[in-house]
Amino acid sequence: MPTLIPVTTTHLGEHVPLLDLLPDDAPLAWVRNGEGLVGWGVHATTTVSGPHRFADARHWWQKQLEGFAVSNSVHGSGTGPLLFTSFSFSPNDSSVLIIPKIIVGKKGDKSWITWLGSSPQPTLKSEQRIFLPNPVRWNEDQDTDAHWKQRVTDSVQRIHDGVLDKVVLARDFSGTAQSPIDARSILKKLAAEYPSTWSFAVSGLVGATPELLLRLSRTMVTSRVLAGTISKTGDDERDLALAASLARSSKDLEEHEYAVRSVADALEPFCTSTNVPESPYVLHLANVMHLATDVTGALAEKLAHVDAFTILEQLHPSAAVCGTPRAIASELINEIEGMSRGRYAGPVGWIDAAGDGELGIALRCGQINANAVRIFAGCGIVAGSNADIELAESEAKLVPMRSALS
Description:
- By secondary structure, the chain is an alpha+beta fold.
- The chain has a single domain (5-118, 141-404), classed as Anthranilate synthase (4-Layer Sandwich), CATH 3.60.120.
- It has 8 helices and 21 strands.
- A hairpin with a 2-residue loop joins strand 20 (365-369) and strand 21.
- The model has no long low-confidence stretch (mean pLDDT 93).
């Protein structure tokens, strides 16, 4: 019999600012409004790819769990051993799974620490770090905007031809800084500027997503769908009027309905009941507003084997990041988008030993590689889309990362 690795979870007597705990080596984070999880140190890591990547990820995670002797005095989702994961958008690219050596969590008035190994409880160091300026020089191509607008126009024509109803087109920008880019600096800026989003970091992919793809906790499942966007002006009265126009926009409501329906249809087979609000609400962020709908469901008790991996396999990619019908939209993306998305627009977050988890869609993010970075934005294209307006929307969606890297 191989020796089992101790995994200990215990309460913390103090509330700690999670992002201030992270060391400078490969931080892991999933934090919203000061709550969530951070981790560091690598106990084990692997990559998966291909059409069965979610099942392969589950198999690897379960094999790892078999080698643990867990002592958990806290209990609840997110406690005990934890898997941080960032899945690729396309099955052709690599997804990353990481089990950290140390995890610190906070939810409400409860804080806890989990560590792997037989050593005593780790001592936490909370530091208010000063990050030196390290601005990014962006690689500018004057033809980039025109090429992307042409792709939008071509997509609208396909939609008018009846080939599909909606497609999501992404674009990327690359840049270089003078010294290695510190993910912690970006996380802190994003968390301060966009506290209601989920700030995340997994294997160099760093961002702040407003879109929760899946929360699974004790047989209750939630997904926050965002589709339909308008930029804010900074003038409160003007922005209220813009929010009202967004809520009435037939183009944006159509785009939103496709995304909501794709999520509701994916969840329905697993649930005894689902709740899909009749109309969306307007979610206000610092720089943009989105049409948003929270879809919830109760998992059927007879489906005891269903876990986050199972549901992710059906949910991803939703119409919010791919299109409708999904297979045709995916083919069009492969044909005209002209880039690999990597882990952009894929599920990112954490999964615990019970198979519960919280995963967002990796949006408003960038992939860091030493002193290089690649940032992304995408827009949903429907019959009423206008290439100039979609270009402006994509620029607004790039603002969080451009600002955090400035």
